[in-house]
Amino acid sequence: MILRCILAIVLVGLAFSSVAHAQVPSPSPTETATGFDPVQATKAWLDTVPADQRAKSNAYFEGGYWLLLWNFLVAAVIAIFLLASKLSARLRDFAERMTKFKTLQVAIYTVCFLLIVAALGFPLTLYEDFIREHQYGFATQTFAPWFAQQLTGLMVGLIAGVVAVSILYAVFRRAPRTWWIWGTLVTVVLSFLGNFIAPVYVEPLFNTYKPLTDPKIRDPILAMAQANQIPVKQVFEVDASRQTTRVSANVAGILGTTRIALNDNLLTRCTLPEIREVMAHEMGHYVLNHGGKLTIYLGVVALFGFAFARFVFDRAVRRWGEKWRVRGIDDPAGLPLLMLIFVTFTFLTTPVQNSIVRTTEREADQFGINTSREPDGACKVALKLGAYRKLDPTPLEEFIFFDHPSGRARIQMAMDWKAAHLPCPNLDAPEPATD
User: What percent of the chain has pLDDT over 90?
Assistant: First the structure.
């Protein structure tokens, strides 16, 4: 988790099975919009979750608040250690002895740097991604395959990290005064390329994607895709159950790499109305161009991050650069300082970044329910996701820690939609035949 966090910062600025089938009575054919209370309906859905399961999901999600802090602190300690011990400067010296080419020096340094960060951060990664996930019943892998996938992720991270850092340091060398502006542009471009490459070349390294063959599930999904002009002819099934019990799906890719995929947990744990609602939500991200919008929105955040980095980096080097043996912004030995600055900036702007993502998720929710017309399916899915997301947080919690709308917010929206479309009890029923 620490390594993934650092790589993300480099690119941006360097199940409740019982709840799964819980049933809430649908309104009778005589219910009308005035006789259906969305607030009471929302409460009825939330009340289907037993107290012990609610306590478990709350404990899991609230534990994530502390993990957010611990990830920041561990990353900060690693960065300070690399600077104060002069290990970063020694790695730089080693790279300079290996070659005279600046780009190769940065590449060699980056490989060593990322390996050290991964090794020092591994205990927290082990707890966060393996031990804790098993404690709460979300992980299905034993240690050996989990560790093998961590190594695969490390290799991908090394390649992506070397490319990204090498490009950024080339910018630093050529634009020593305006590097923070050009660095932001590079970040946006790299993010765009990542969205293009990941669905085709990265995600298949961790899971097997195969065409979904069940026409009862496949055809309604393709029909929604066609109606919304999504250029796909297949739906893919992902074997996520060998790793986790979580349900998930996505519509990913751009410029010919677009792909609709849903994991096998979604197929086995959800009904067709629920699957339709989930897939409609994911299609909403594509149709509403959330990938491009988030790249721009978070690029603006990255611009502030780079400006903050420029302000802090220059002053820190003037005060401690000689002690750390860091020469300037174009010196790879200063990468831990940039890491420290960016993890601090990212930590402090967590509510801002979460709010940006949460807004797009809310838009996708609205698109999904209008497309699928499955308000009850939306509620059931929200309860399933409530296994690892707190269902009913305080407004402050939701603002700071939630990058998706809370379960209560999602259910309330679904019930408001349902109230607006009553009295028809079957929203997808055809019109009666006339003589």
Answer: 82
